[in-house]
Amino acid sequence: MNRVVITGLGAVSPLGNDVKTTWENMKKGVNGIGEVTKFDASEYKCRLAGEVRGFDPTLYLPKGEIRKTDLYTQYAVAAAAQAYEDGGLTAESVAPDRFGVYIGSGIGGIQTLVSEHSKFIEKGPGRVSPFFVPMMIANMASGTVAIRYNAQGPNIGIVTACATSTNSIGEAYRAIKHGYADVMLAGGSEAAVTPLCFAGFISCQALSPAEDKDRASIPFDKERGGFVMGEGGAVLLLEEYGHAKARDAKIYAEVVGYGCTNDAYHMTAPNPEAVASSRAIELAAAEGGVVADGRLYINAHGTGTPLNDKTETCAVKRAFGQDAYKLHISSTKSMTGHMLGAAGGIEAIASVLALGEGVIPPTINYRVKDEDCDLDVTPNEAVGADLAFALSVSLGFGGHNGCLAFKKI
Questions:
Q1: Where are the domains of the chain?
Q2: pLDDT tens digit string along 25-67?
Q3: Do 4-246 and 261-396 fold alike per CATH?
């Protein structure tokens, strides 16, 4: 079996339009959540979001291409371009048929869908854009990135709701581990801060109704009342270890394990017994030889919904027993909001950088302890730690559970 390492990182997030800015703000505990500006949310019960600010797609795409791509694809292209450049990859350094892309999206081109549907209703079928379908479909981010870099190897646009990025990275890891590719760009993208998506998530009582941005996304806090929608893109460059060493690439960390399960329980609610979610953690940890002690960091899914955080705490306890109380845990969603299909990507990046720097990013705005969420969630301030392993956990609608294991190298 091949070893798999991470050689490049790319991100567009509510905390910054690149990895460096995002990570520095995470360590500082900056809150990337604010009033919705992308539409008039004054009549909505929930009016806060983790929006990407100041994003310039012309840095990554020609103006003519921007008109033909949904925002979620633009975020993906930007994150992939950053990861590719960060990894020092060139067309000559990887064979096209050994280069793959797994970039997913939970929702895909929802902005295009809504705008083209309005045009269809108001002006008739003849006015619908010829680019409507390719702009809308959720695999187009993966396809667009592959075209950009002539990546002719494995290519899949995974859609598993909030677990999308984690599954994309995990499956990319397996593709390299089992010899189907040498290099993979993997992650996810989302641009769903739209009136329709807000209305839908509000109707299923998933979003936080808080008016104070510092009491909105509050994972593991007893007063939590829902998640805050975020957006952006996050992509990692995964590479076979020998391939990376041969071109003298810098290595952030090694991917050593991946767990993928399903609750088979409910469309939106997690199984409160955490049977399958804990198994995803156990599978990743066992494959990676993870040691459950003070040198392990878990970037929790930590959405800030009452059921998720309680269930996830249960999952960690089921997976590690009493050792769960020794672990460093935090939810960076307290700062980014829930980036849906991109969440696992940005959290994998946070996990890898935490490993490398020995810094646990905090769960900010934590005030009220919950007896059901009694693990060390790194409240409010980043802490230093000598880390050996990191786990990144994602739990999605539809019962999708994913966990990635990283090792310091």
A1: 4-246, 261-396
A2: 999 999 999 999 999 999 999 999 999 999 999 999 999 999 9
A3: yes
Superfamily of 261-396 according to CATH: Thiolase/Chalcone synthase (3.40.47.10)
Among the residues of 178-297, which ranges form H helices?
195-203, 241-246, 275-288
Q: What is the pLDDT of residues 238-269, one digit of tens each?
A: 999 999 999 999 999 999 999 999 999 999 99
Task: Pick the catalytic residue from 197, 260, 301, 314.
Answer: 301
Q: What is the homologous superfamily of the domain 4-246 according to CATH?
A: Thiolase/Chalcone synthase (3.40.47.10)
Catalytic residue at 338?
Answer: yes
Q: Is 301 a catalytic residue?
A: yes
Considering the candidates 243, 328, 338, 400, report the single residue annotated as catalytic: 338
157-194 core/surface letters (b: 16 or more CB in 10 A; e: else): bbbbbbbbbbbbbbbbbbbbbeeebbbbbbbbbbbbbb
What are 232-246's pLDDT values in tens digits? 999 999 999 999 999
Q: Where are the alpha helices (DSSP H) in 211-289?
A: 241-246, 275-288
| Active-site choice (46, 162, 260, 373) | 162
65's tokens: 């291409």
Contacts 24+ apart (CB under 8 A), 33-36: 33/213, 33/216, 33/217, 33/228, 33/230, 33/335, 33/337, 34/213, 35/213, 36/193, 36/198
